[in-house]
Amino acid sequence: MSDPSHDIPFKMYLIKRNKPPDFTFLVISVILSFLLSEVRTDTLFKDTLVISKRTLSLSDSPYLVEGDVVVEPEGQLVIESGVTMKFNPGVGITVRGVLTADGDPDSKIVFTSAGDAYKQENRTIRLVDGPTVQQGIIQVLEKGKWRSVCTNSRNWTQSDLTVACRQLGFTGGEWHHWYEHLNDTQQILFQDPGCLGHERSIENCDLRKRSMGSGVCDHHPNLGIRCLPFHNTENRAVKNHWRGIRFESAPFSKRLTAENTLYVSYSKSVLRHVEVLNAGQGKYKNLLNATSAIETWGVPPIMDHIKVENSAYNGINITLPASSVTITNANITGNRGYGLYVNSTRGYVNLEHSSVTDNMADGVKLHVHDHRPESKVVDGVDVHDFCTYSTTYSQTYPFLMVAEQYGDSLVERSCGKKLYTKRGYILTLHFVHLMAEENDGATLEVRDGSDISSRLISTVPIRNFTRPESIVSTGNNIFITFSAKKKIKSEVFLEITAGLQKAADLNVTDS
């Protein structure tokens, strides 16, 4: 018979052994609290129209956007630092009012796709030297080098063109242009790829009919093709991409700067310390529209410390800016098209302290084209008659002038104009549009000084479809003479601006 006193310590040991220590409860409670705090759902952003001031707070971030959002002219969308907005495929933001996305260096605002997005794949064909990403000279990557394609002046079949555009990630396919071979890029003869139309790439077609070597392309132009600006639905690289941010004639203000000499337009919208990721795919009539991550018409927003990455099309696209374009401290990388594309009649593009790398087309593409103003007021600036307008020492810039001769005029026309600004400033003369019924029916003489005796900088003949190089004074005066023959209609639109330095079409600084 055992001694009952011996069982007591054992029972007490069992009781203590089976009771969890207080420290274990504490650890479990902390872990559960942490996990529960990390589990949160996205806040659904339901506003399709923003017609007043609307603020997205960090406390409700991230936001999920399921449909297109339009900020109307009377609306303002304010996004706090640190907010993330996730967009479903094909949707985005259109700004006709004000978008204020002003983040902090350590708390950036992020616009991105709701789902995981693929990176753009390297391709073995590309289009170069065209007006857009989806049209131009076709080049193929052969033995580690890009080679332009000649075809003995024979066009490719529709099947060949369709396969080429599919491989490029687009739809459609048609002949665009025969391009003269003007550089030392080697050519490859590829006159009949022999595609059936279902292939995913040119390499899947009949490669036996292409050849290289001396003389195979002598005197034959390069083949240029054009694809439609719609993504191929089979291209997984656009899966889950959202549309991007589009500014449409958004509000701005004009300020008189440079000692009351120069009017500058400033957008009321701002993108600062912002990341725009995985954009570039919109929707249009059940098609996947090729869009840029940031698109602007009119005065572009203030863009500073922005990152634009992995767009399925261009990174930033600026069309017909009604002011100068300044982008600072930007990182534009890994986009399918151009890093920065500007389509303008005036230039004035400033890219400062920025990095534009690893984009599949040109890093920066500036397309400056001729444009005839159709009214007497352009972007709020009067178009003055060159021969009758009087300038003064207190003249504000920029301003437009038109010098013209009428087709029924029975006399020759000649008039001169002195333009001047404050000391320490210089003048830049841009040629916006030139037209003449006969070449050399009119001329401009530009002199570096205040009168006809000053040093001649340039004599410019007025010819159709030309855009002469801009002219810059060395001091604060410039003298222009317009001379036109009788009975020959001609006109020239000039834009003059003033500043401490010349107004360049494209100014890249420390980038």
Description:
It is built from three helices and 43 strands. By secondary structure, the protein is mainly β. The strands form seven sheets. Strands 1, 3, 4, 6, 7, 9, 10, 21, 25, 27, 28, 30, 31 and 43 form a 14-stranded parallel beta sheet that branches. The protein has an eight-stranded parallel beta sheet with strand order 2-5-8-18-24-26-29-32, with no helix packed on it. Strands 11, 12, 13, 14, 15, 16 and 17 form a seven-stranded mixed beta sheet that branches. The protein starts with a helix and ends with a strand.
Helix/strand layout:
Layout (H helix, E strand, L loop, with lengths): L3 H15 L3 H17 L4 E3 L3 E2 L2 E4 L6 E3 L3 E3 L4 E4 L4 E4 L4 E4 L2 E5 L6 E5 L11 E8 L2 E8 L2 E6 L7 H11 L1 E10 L7 E4 L19 E2 L10 E10 L12 E5 L3 E6 L4 E6 L2 E8 L3 E4 L2 E4 L3 E4 L4 E8 L6 E4 L5 E4 L2 E3 L6 E5 L4 E4 L2 E3 L6 E5 L8 E2 L2 E5 L13 E7 L7 E8 L5 E11 L5 E7 L6 E7 L9 E2 L4 E8 L5 E10 L6 E4 L2
Parallel strand pairs: 1-4, 2-5, 3-6, 4-7, 5-8, 6-9, 7-10, 8-18, 9-21, 10-21, 13-15, 18-24, 21-25, 24-26, 25-27, 25-28, 26-29, 27-30, 28-31, 29-32, 30-43, 34-35
Antiparallel strand pairs: 11-12, 12-13, 12-17, 14-17, 15-16, 19-20, 22-23, 33-34, 35-42, 36-41, 37-40, 37-42, 38-39, 38-41
